[in-house]
Amino acid sequence: MRVAILSDIHANGPALEAALDAVGDHDQLWITGDIVGYGPHPDEVVERLRAAGARAVQGNHDAAVLGRIPTGTFNDLARAAVEWTAATMATHNLAWLASLPETRTEGDFTLAHGSPRDPLWEYLFSIPAARLSLAAFETPYCVVGHTHHQLTFRDDDGQVEALLAGDGDTLALDERRCILNAGSVGQPRDGDPRACAMTLDTDRSEVRWLRTTYDISATQADIRALPLPDRLADRLALGV
Ligand code: ZN
């Protein structure tokens, strides 16, 4: 089976289309949260995922749009986007977001947005944090998002190592448990503005990371035409 794994789409329609094109044919689509927030296309993105039968979990931006968590810890840009998104989204698409769990299990994988230990909030940027999370799920492997970085933590016989990934990199899955991150489709923050994606081939036990260009100017124009902060448009070209 071939699985497309996407994260942090952040309501960026052109980036989602480019990421789906880049991964090609797939049997399932897994989404590790932050489907909306920041971007100008929340309804379009949710409808695309619903039509594709995506198996998704909520991220902190999704939960904030649903009013499930306070936005007091969000920065001004994020809060403004959450408020606009909540006010603009169609009721049936909000209901779909609300139906999503915070974690789910798909085969050998646990899906969570931040971490399996703290699905909505925790950023897995460090080996100590990853070590705690490696003890917090039952399956061999876990997929997260939230940091917007293509970064893996792997437990090599008690030593946790961090592995950065880039376009075209693959990782063979073996007995070593790991937490994988596909990076962000709609708002990369590693200095590379291209949309991120990941594929899983369960027959070969291999994951592959991808980057793909998309029409950034189209998303920027849509942000600027809406009551969203211009800085949300500016950052897309920089990948920050
Ligand atoms: Zn995010």
Describe the structure.
There is one protein chain. This protein is 31% helix and 24% strand. The chain is α/β, with parallel strands linked by helices. Zinc ion binds at residues 8, 10, 34, 59, 61, 146, 148.
Overall 3D shape: globular
Q: Count of helices?
A: 8
**DSSP E strands, number:** 12
Ends apart, CA distance between termini: 33 Å
**Bound compounds, please?**
zinc ion
Question: Order of helices and strands, N to C?
Answer: EHEHEHHHEEHEEEEEEEHH
- Spatial sequence of strands, sheet with the most strands: 3-2-1-11-12-9
Give a quick account of the main beta sheet: strands, pairing sense, barrel closure.
Answer: 6 strands, mixed
Strand content: 15-25%
The computed structural class is: alpha/beta
Short summary:
By secondary structure, the chain is of the alpha/beta class.
Could you name the key traits of this structure?
240 residues; alpha/beta; six-stranded mixed beta sheet; 8 helices; 24% strand; globular; binds zinc ion
Draw up the topology in text:
Elements: E1 2-6, H1 13-23, E2 28-32, H2 42-51, E3 55-57, H3 60-65, H4 76-88, H5 91-99, E4 103-106, E5 109-112, H6 127-134, E6 141-144, E7 151-156, E8 159-164, E9 170-172, E10 178-181, E11 195-201, E12 206-212, H7 216-224, H8 230-238
Parallel strand pairs: 1-2, 2-3, 5-6, 6-10
Antiparallel strand pairs: 1-11, 4-5, 7-8, 7-10, 9-12, 11-12
Helix pairs in contact: 7-8
